[in-house]
Amino acid sequence: MTAARCPVSHTFDAMGDDYFRDPALAFANVRDEMPTFFYPYLNAWVVTAKADCEYVLSDWKKFSSGDKGASIEVPEQFQHIVPQELIAKILVGSDPTGHTLSRSVAGRAFVKPRMDALQPVIEERAHRILDSFAAEGSTNLMEAYCLELTTQTFMALAGLDHEAEPMMRQLRDDQFAILASALEPMEEPRRSEVWGRYAAAQTYLRGIVHERIENPGDDLISEMAGVRDREGAMVLSPEQIAVHVGEFSGAATDTTAQAMANAVLFLTANPEALEAAMADPQLWPRVFDETVRRRPSGTATRWAKEDVILGGAEIKKGDVVWLGLASANTDASYYERPFDFDIHRADVGDHLAFSKGRHTCLGQPLARVQGATGLKVLFERLPSLRADADTPLDFVQMALLPIRRTLPVHWDVTDAARARELI
């Protein structure tokens, strides 16, 4: 280990139970001693202090996202469908000017007024989903409600038929695996399986894009396909639009679903917060924001473009920097009682869960509307719902994206009948 790779934490383990149970606490156990440390498993520097994370996120010239796209290696047998230069154009793995252009096109579908207008639609959809299992008394809420709600909303937003839903659900998982492969290489045969499904999904989505070019509608894909330059040419190619739809299949579904599940866990552990939100529905947006502050659903990585010192560590040009957003959001230098779940805190929206700078999450208006609405309807219908006492640590085994698969919950079945009578 060279001096440039020190300090190293010998206790931090992003693949261990403590991390999956509570990433913020796992970071806190090393943050005070080593604000920035090297993590050999990912061959990356872990940055834990909020000020340092904000510095990295705000300076794309010193800390590039573009190397992420370049670091995702497309298997040779699929490069005729997904060329290396195409995957390098993913939004989370590109820098200006390409990123700016793509973001300006994609962002038209996620503007706040449009997302706010979806609120009654999301609420009605949430009721329909709950109707399907409310009388059962227990379920895996992650699949039955959180992912079901976000997936149905995305399918409607993209104007995709029900027949495409299984493919899009699988694409969601494959997209995350491909993004993580920039630092966590996939082994065979999983690598070929993931890329094979991804290439097939991209081919399907390109066909949809071409259909929307000929017959545009009021949907995300039509919105992106309809943007033209001064000469009347498409700003983004059908292939690039399909790549971005693939990104959204995960970013617009799983991250919000994870946040809703985490909120249920926090509310189970903090009944006074649940009581307050049920008494005052205006507090549900605060429940959602405090949840993602305490446990963000995403993460961020950058590549250093020059030598720099962060948290006392000497980071060299070309090194990977992994930003511990869960740590930044619980930095005691910025937050009073940082590990408390406090929906009344004055700075409830002051966090990095949606990143910062040029890569601020495009979908945060949708996430905030859908997360708050989904939680409100859930507890209006099933006020006694609580997470089971022994919630399993059932996560996809990826350090960069700890994706929860199950959340067992239970409730008094008499809730369902009483609540439905009031609707």
From TrEMBL:
Cleaved signal peptide residues: none
InterPro entries hit by this protein: Cyt_P450 (IPR001128), Cyt_P450_B (IPR002397), Cyt_P450_CS (IPR017972), Cyt_P450_sf (IPR036396)
Domain of life: Bacteria
Matches recorded under Gene3D superfamilies: Cytochrome P450
Protein name from the UniProt record: Cytochrome P450
Family label: Belongs to the cytochrome P450 family.
Any Pfam family matching the protein: p450
Alphabetically ordered keywords of this record: Heme, Iron, Metal-binding, Monooxygenase, Oxidoreductase
